[in-house]
Amino acid sequence: MEIKILEFNQLDIHMLYELLQLRSAVFVVEQDCVYQDIDDKDQKAIHVLGYKNKELVAYTRIFNKGNYFDEASIGRVLTKQNQRKYGYGKLIMQASIKELETRFEINTIQISAQTYLKKFYNELGFVEVGEGYLEDNIPHIKMLRTK
């Protein structure tokens, strides 16, 4: 998988369309969740895009501390449904963590994780904090990773 890390103004119109289409396919259609994906935060985000044979198959958006949560954060973590068996989710998360730690020299990363993915995030060094909660009617939990 080839990973590209771009700020919002570095995305061309085709990349933007492709990432929004994939986010919609996973979070709105596949998870049957009606929510406002385009939330005016993409402009502050750094976009981590994973390509296989020039097709977007994995994605996250990352934020420096204070741009989304008080801590640096990773969100909109996804892998295209038919590509999940190849470990691309782990690769895109590792690239996102590395980018945050090197670009912003941070020690703590916060995520709002879908509860059923706790084990996946635990394997990447994240630990649960506090009680679970509903976000867009999907169970989530706050998780932190400290260097």
Number of strands: 7
Write the element-wise H/E pattern from the N-terminal end onward: EHEEEHEHEE
Please report the number of helical segments: 3
Largest sheet: 7 strands, mixed
Q: State the strand order across the main sheet.
A: 1-2-3-4-5-7-6
Summarize the structure.
By secondary structure, the protein is of the alpha+beta class. The protein has helices spanning 13-30, 88-103, 118-122, and strands at 2-7, 46-52, 55-63, 72-79, 108-114, 127-135, 138-146. The longest helix is centred in the first third of the chain and has 18 residues, at 13-30.
Topology overview:
Blueprint: E1 2-7, H1 13-30, E2 46-52, E3 55-63, E4 72-79, H2 88-103, E5 108-114, H3 118-122, E6 127-135, E7 138-146
Explain how this protein is built.
By secondary structure, the chain is an alpha+beta fold. Helices cover 27% and strands 37% of the residues. It has three helices and seven strands. The chain has a seven-stranded mixed sheet, sandwiched between helices. The protein is globular, with a radius of gyration of 14 Å. The mean pLDDT is 97.
